């Protein structure tokens, strides 16, 4: 088939979107697609590397929020967030075993996007980090991580289906 990957992506995207919107509670269609795209940037052994890298990015985003919460009362307005982001983005490259920078950044950015949807950065901090330690779907790290895992799996599935269609 001339465009096996395109056909495979279309079919699996249909299934993923249906499941994410109707069957699997709490997952984010768009975050799954981000991990899915990351899957194709990773290369060999993409599934485990993509999952670990995107989740690592999500955890680093949560750490950034925690740093802001700790520093915000002690620094001039608008300084804590850039410091926290600078430190944690550096951290995305600091561990050899998790040094998949594109997927790390995708997980980081998607998690920040989810944390800040509809609010400004400092409004998101008003929760005082309570949701970041919840062990349910109120926790943005759990929601994005679950979405990343499933999106990565759909990346693998779409790759395998494309191989069968060739």
Automatic annotation (TrEMBL):
It comes from Methylophilales bacterium HTCC2181. This is DUF1097 domain-containing protein. The chain crosses the membrane at residues 15-39, 51-69, 75-93, 105-125, 137-157. Keywords: Membrane, Transmembrane, Transmembrane helix. It holds the Pfam family DUF1097. It comes from the Bacteria.
């Amino acid at each position: 088939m001339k465009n096996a990957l395109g056909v495979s992506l279309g079919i699996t995207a249909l299934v993923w979107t249906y499941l994410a919107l109707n069957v699997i509670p709490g997952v984010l269609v768009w975050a799954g697609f981000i991990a899915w795209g990351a899957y194709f940037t990773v290369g060999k052994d993409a599934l485990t590397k993509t999952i670990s890298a995107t989740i690592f990015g999500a955890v680093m985003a949560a750490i950034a929020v925690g740093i802001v919460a700790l520093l915000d009362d002690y620094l001039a307005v608008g300084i804590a967030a850039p410091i926290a982001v600078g430190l944690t983005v550096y951290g995305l490259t600091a561990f050899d075993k998790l040094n998949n920078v594109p997927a790390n950044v995708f997980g980081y950015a998607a998690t920040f996007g989810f944390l800040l949807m509809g609010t400004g950065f400092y409004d998101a901090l008003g929760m005082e980090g309570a949701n970041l330690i919840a062990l349910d779907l109120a926790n943005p790290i759990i929601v994005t991580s679950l979405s990343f895992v499933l999106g990565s799996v759909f990346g693998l599935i779409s790759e395998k289906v494309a191989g069968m269609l060739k």
